[in-house]
Amino acid sequence: GDSVTQMEGPVTLSEEAFLTINCTYTATGYPSLFWYVQYPGEGLQLLLKATKADDKGSNKGFEATYRKETTSFHLEKGSVQVSDSAVYFCALSEGNSGGSNYKLTFGKGTLLTVNP
Amino acid sequence: DGGITQSPKYLFRKEGQNVTLSCEQNLNHDAMYWYRQDPGQGLRLIYYSQIVNDFQKGDIAEGYSVSREKKESFPLTVTSAQKNPTAFYLCASTDSYEQYFGPGTRLTVT
C-alpha cells in the first residue's frame, strides 16, 4: 500500500538557519502530496500542497517540489523563525484529487524547534 | 466562520467506561474522518464516512464505533474494548481536495 517516510526528529535550529525536512513516498498511482503543520496542542493545518509532478507548493516562506523521479517532496525554508517551531507532517492522498475515496496517508511527523 | 469543532478539549475517564467524542462541521462537507495521534506514530485513521448513514473502518478501528446520522456530525465512541485509549483524537472533513482538521480532543483513561 501507499506509505510516507519522513526524516525523524527532533530537529533543532537557530533562528535564520536553513531548514530541510526530507519526505519520500511510495504510491501505486499519481498521488497529491501535502505538508501539514501542527502547533502545540492544536489540530493540523495545511501548509502547502502539490498535485502533479514538478509542481512546487509554497506558503509562508516554505516550499516543496513534487519530484516523481525520486518520489520525494522535501520541505525547505531559507530562514526559520522561532514561530516556526511545530510538528511537520508529510502526507499523500490516495487516488486523484476530487475522487470519492479521498484518504490521506501520513508520515510520522518531524518536530522542529527553533531557538532565538 | 466555517470550521470543525471538537469538544471537549480534554477528557478524563476511568478504565472500563465508554466515552463519546464530539465532532461537528459547518463546511457542508460530505466526507469526515477520525484519526488517532500518539507520540512518534503520526496520524492513524480510525474510521471515515463519505456520506450520511455510511462509514468505513480505517486502519485501527478495533475498540471504536461511529455514527453518521447527520451531515454535520460524526461522533466517535471509544469503547471499553479499546486496549490503549489514551491519545489525542483528531477529526477532519474534506472537500476532496484538502482535509480540514479540528483542534483535537485529548483523552486520558486511568
Summarize the structure.
The complex is a heterodimer of chains A (116) and B (110). By secondary structure, chain A is mainly beta.
Describe this protein's structure.
The complex is a heterodimer of chains A (116) and B (110). Chain A is built from no helices and 12 strands. With 116 residues, chain A is an all-beta fold. In chain A, strand 5 (32-38) and strand 6 (44-50) form a beta hairpin. The mean pLDDT of chain A is 91. By secondary structure, chain B is mainly beta. Chain B has no helices and 11 strands. Chain B has strands at 4-7, 10-13, 19-25, 31-38, 42-51, 54-57, 64-66, 76-78, 87-94, 99-101, 105-109. In chain B, a hairpin with a 3-residue loop joins strand 4 and strand 5 (42-51). Chain B is globular. The chains are: A mainly beta (116), B mainly beta (110). The interface between A and B is medium-sized, with 22 and 23 residues.
